[in-house]
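User: Last request for today: this protein with S-adenosylmethionine, please.
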Amino acid sequence: MAEAAVHRSDSIRDGEVQGSLPEHFDASVYFIGRIHTPFKTRADCPRRGDPEQGPDCTIELDARFADALKGLDAYEHIAVLYWMDQARRDLLVQNPKHDGGLVGTFALRSPVRPNPIALSIARLIRIDGATLTVRGLDCVNGTPLIDIKPEFTGGRKPCHA
Ligand SMILES: C[S@@+](CC[C@H](N)C(=O)[O-])C[C@H]1O[C@@H](n2cnc3c(N)ncnc32)[C@H](O)[C@@H]1O
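Assistant: Here's the final one, the structure of the complex with S-adenosylmethionine:
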């Protein structure tokens, strides 16, 4: 069995509440690239990436989308959205610290959610072709990329604004 499938059926902790997911999907996404990090497993990942400390990670954008990077190098920070492919999706209430404290999924940044979309604000170090080097990610090596956007807060203004 694939590793991802094992993770998606992770056991439920004390007090956690499972819900039922809709039978059908409402939309489709394209995985537009892969994120490469030094983190081999979820346990190796930081809880939240640090855009100042790193470590450096690379985003390998599918070459077909490379032209869509035009202008992005004007930004110090970018929003990176990625798909937490090893997360189960059916928990409504979670016990995130394993201490019995129960919190609703939408009050958490947990990857466990109906649509396992993660968002990190990363520092953009450089762009080489379709490869971006960034700091501030917290995902397992190979995690699918779903979008990149410029981040305006705290970064320098884009030259083409
Ligand atoms: C708490 S989430 C935060 C993600 C993002 N920074 C956010 O706020 O949306 C980060 C954790 O997700 C887990 N994780 C990392 N990569 C994953 C993946 N591909 N699938 C499922 N879980 C993952 C790791 O345990 C990591 O510490």
